[in-house]
Amino acid sequence: MQRFYETKYLHCVNAFGGVREMFETLTRRGGKVALATDCKGPELKHYLSLLNIDEFIEVMACGDDVEHGKPDPAL
Asked: Per DSSP, which regions of the chain are E strands?
């Protein structure tokens, strides 16, 4: 199912407007960003490239780092 989504729909995903500006404002005001997601591989790379927020992420836990995804509390 995951492979089907990646090949058929992933290229259609768009970021919400203002996401980068929100993260920029948050960090400028002293906030820190921790990203937790069960995404991994090409899907994660695609989402991060759409958001263009890498410079604002302090720490990240992704699907490659955990055994079980959301809603598992370990993530």
From this structure: 33-36, 57-61
pLDDT tens, residue by residue, 55-64: 999 999 888 7
d(CA 16, CA 31): 20
Q: Chain-centre distance of CA 23, in angstroms?
A: 12
- The yes-or-no verdict on residue 51 having pLDDT over 70 is yes
Decide: pTM greater than 0.85.
no
Angstrom distances, CA of residue 44 to CA of 21, 25, 29, 31, 40: 20, 23, 27, 23, 5
- Domain assignments of the chain as residue spans, ordered by start: 2-61
Structural tokens at position 32 = 């820190």
